[in-house]
Specification:
- The structure holds two protein chains of two kinds.
- Chain A is of the alpha/beta class.
- In chain A, 38% of the residues lie in helices and 22% in strands.
- Chain A contains twelve helices and nine strands.
- Chain A has helices spanning 2-5, 54-61, 79-82, 103-109, 112-115, 123-135, 151-164, 181-196, 208-214, 231-234, 237-244, 254-263; strands at 16-25, 28-37, 43-47, 69-74, 86-89, 169-172, 200-204, 217-222, 224-230.
- In chain A, helix 9 (208-214) packs parallel to helix 12.
- Chain B has helices at 2-9, 14-39, 44-69, 75-108, 112-134, 142-146, 162-180, 182-190, 192-197, 202-224, 226-243, 247-280, 290-308, 314-346, 355-358, 362-373, 388-404; strands at residues 377-380, 383-386.
- In chain B, helix 2 runs antiparallel to helix 10, helix 3 (44-69) runs parallel beside helix 5 (112-134) and helix 14 (314-346) crosses helix 16.
- At the A-B interface, helix 4 and helix 5 of A face helix 8, helix 9 and helix 12 of B.
């Protein structure tokens, strides 16, 4: 039950702690010496330029790609023991949308662990999935083949799938990329709802303009950690310049971005 | 012609029935793992596996005879267990080829089909080499190992041919596997990363599918021959994918198509060659290979689906496209008439909006005609004018257009 799964130790043991993690593709390191401890009950944006290793950070933490070095702990234990407490929202392009499944089928997949090996999906599982689809405003599209959904709707299906996992920590890879305004609002709403339930979300995010509005904390990443912490202290012009180097045209505008974020 | 077909089919005997039963059971047994191969976009894996299993079969064959020669097992046990040995060899090689392909892909930085190409030719060559090396001591004929023939179904125990019993068992096993591991197979094919984070080992499922496919190939090869097996692995599910949007229906439709293919294939093997070739002046050609004709039927069914499938077929897509183009043309006409009317009203002159429709493409004329037909536009002596109904729909269009315009 959801209320029981948030055990008292949540406040003491961090949802995610990464120590000294390095990941390399073919001997060339992609991310270096990452040390990070995630706060509980906060929305954290992972921000950085293309190729900074944002997705790699998530994938390596989840054992999806091998780490060259370092330890990762979820709620004080290795990932394979804590799977049930971690939800994952992959990038939208990572799957074949021509696959013959409906939106509901995709959401039910998030429950496969609870259903158990070799056992059939029961009506109550479908009901749970339908409720999650309703939460993201997609109940009307439950039986539609996933190719015939818009990009934003597809992203909401992914979000619903993560919701049914009923995790305590969510790792989301670019949920805001290429979605319409309605979906963006829906995702933000869900994130805030998760936070109010004491859950944590680490979200790879591209739009610097909305970081301060949507998130409590940031991880600024460019192969190495540039800065982490609350938006107010870590999301500064200086740190952004360090993260993006000369590549950020927006650096000139960051004062405006940050100013707008804190006032809004 | 109908009489002729009837004549050719009148010779249909229990032997033909057994051929159809055997072929359709084999077709359905092969089509099942094929569904998931196609879903994983690894359709050629079946073709490749049919070659890579050779070294496994040769080793299993040599092992079996070696055990007999060493007097570990009696000749009768050896004969009885030989199929099990061959199965084992095929299953092992199925997993080995999947692993090797991944290995080559990762180490050689090439795409998966290139890696597969390297692995399957090498393993097949290795198998042939072993046959050559051992040909003196043990008689192995690749034909007898790999290529069966559906027309040679022989009666076995209790009136049921051995090959039929074999493929029936195969179908049952594959059905049970698909039913048991439906969720796991689906999620590993759709989203292997999610599967892994949920604790379902996607790679393990991949190896299991490869092993099952290899075992299916070997069992079916022996019973019905290689052409039929390779065809049935991919063609029925490819056809079904054009007809269905949900996986459970796709599986059922795949099985139905596999069955139909087998039935039609044999019937056509008996009738079609005689019909065609007697007209071409070769009356001596009376029938064709059943497996070959089944492959032809499989291709024909796919072509039919490609053209006529309700949603994914070319014709329905073209129709949908045309309908959309036409609807947009109608909207354009309504809008330009409406705008002309507004412009005329603003200029406070009565200048009927004729210019918008006087010149134009065939499509625009067709659109105007259809608007007249639906009473949205009338033809006056001055040209075309909107009716009140047409004005209403034009106003709606203008409103919708403004809403959908990019902000």
């Amino acid at each position: 039950m959801p209320s029981e799964s948030v055990s008292p130790d949540v406040t003491v043991v961090p949802p995610l702690s990464i120590h000294d993690m390095t990941v390399a593709y073919q001997r060339k390191p992609v991310i270096w010496d990452i040390d990070y401890v995630a706060p509980t009950g906060k929305l954290v944006a992972i921000v950085g330029p293309n190729g900074a290793g944002k997705s790699t950070l998530i994938n390596a933490a989840l054992d999806l790609i091998p780490r060259a070095s370092g330890q990762v702990q979820f709620y004080g234990g290795p990932y394979r023991k804590q799977r049930h407490r971690v939800g994952y929202v992959p990038q939208r392009e990572s799957v074949d949308w021509d696959f013959p499944v409906s939106a509901l089928d995709v959401v039910v997949m998030g429950l496969y662990r609870k259903v158990g090996w070799c056992l059939p999906v029961l009506p109550r599982h479908r009901h749970t999935a339908l409720t999650a689809l309703d939460r993201v405003g997609m109940a009307d599209y439950a039986h539609r083949q996933i190719r015939r959904l818009s990009g934003g709707q597809q992203q909401r299906v992914f979000l619903a799938r993560a919701l049914v996992q009923d995790a305590d920590l969510y790792l989301m890879d670019e949920p805001f990329t290429g979605v319409d305004a309605a979906t963006e609002r829906a995702i933000v709403e869900i994130l805030r709802e998760l936070r109010s339930l004491g859950k944590t979300a680490l979200v790879v995010h591209h739009d610097l303009q909305t970081v301060a509005e949507y998130f409590d904390e940031v991880i600024l990443l460019n192969m190495r950690l540039v800065a982490t912490g609350p938006v107010a202290t870590a999301f500064t012009t200086d740190n952004l310049r360090k993260t993006y180097g000369g590549r950020l045209m927006l650096v000139e505008q960051t004062d405006r971005i940050i100013g707008k974020g804190t006032s809004g | 012609m109908f009489v002729e077909i009837q004549h050719h089919l009148s010779a249909w005997g229990s032997f033909d029935t057994w051929i159809v039963i055997t072929a359709s059971l084999a077709a359905m047994a092969c089509a099942l793992p094929g569904v998931f191969l196609v879903l994983r976009q690894q359709s050629m894996m079946g073709d490749a596996l049919s070659h890579t299993v050779l070294p496994g079969i040769v080793v299993a064959f040599l092992l079996s005879y070696g055990l007999r020669d060493a007097a570990w097992i009696s000749p009768s046990t050896q004969l009885a267990t030989l199929p099990l040995f061959l199965f084992g060899g095929a299953v092992v090689l199925g997993v080995v080829s999947a692993m090797l392909t991944e290995f080559v892909q990762r180490l050689g930085h090439v795409e998966s089909s290139a890696a597969l190409g390297v692995v399957f030719t090498s393993l097949f060559a290795f198998g042939l080499l072993m046959i050559r090396l051992k040909a003196d001591s043990v008689h192995i004929d690749p034909d007898c190992v790999l290529y069966g023939n559906v027309e040679t179904v022989k009666l076995g125990v209790a009136g049921i041919p051995r090959a039929t019993a074999m493929v029936a068992g195969l179908l049952v096993v594959n059905l049970i596997l698909v039913l048991l591991f439906y969720k796991e197979l689906t999620i590993s094919a759709f989203d292997p990363n999610l599967a892994t984070t949920l604790g379902i080992r996607a790679r393990l499922m991949h190896y299991a599918l490869m092993a099952t496919t290899a075992a299916t190939l070997v069992a079916a090869f022996e019973s019905v021959g290689s052409i039929l097996v390779i065809t049935m692995l991919v063609a029925p599910t490819a056809t079904a994918s054009l007809l269905t949007d949900r996986l459970p229906t796709r599986i059922v439709v795949t099985l139905a198509i596999a069955f139909t293919t087998a039935l039609l294939g044999h019937a056509m093997a008996l009738t079609l060659p005689a019909l065609v070739f007697s007209r071409l002046g070769f009356p001596e050609i009376k029938d064709a290979s059943t497996a070959g004709m089944m492959a032809v039927v499989a291709g024909m069914l796919f072509s039919l689906a490609m053209f006529f499938a309700p949603r994914h077929g070319m014709i329905s897509k073209a129709l949908g496209q045309t309908r959309l183009t036409f609807r947009l043309a109608c909207h354009d006409q309504l809008r330009s008439l409406y705008q002309a009317e507004r412009a005329a009203a603003l200029a406070a002159t009565f200048e009927p909006a004729t210019w918008a429709t006087r010149h134009g493409s065939m499509l625009q004329h067709l659109a105007t005609w259809s608007l007249i037909f639906t009473h949205q536009v009338t033809r006056t002596s001055h040209g075309h004018q909107l009716t009140s109904r047409g004005r209403q729909s034009a106003e709606q269009l203008m409103k919708a257009g403004n809403e959908h315009a990019p902000a």
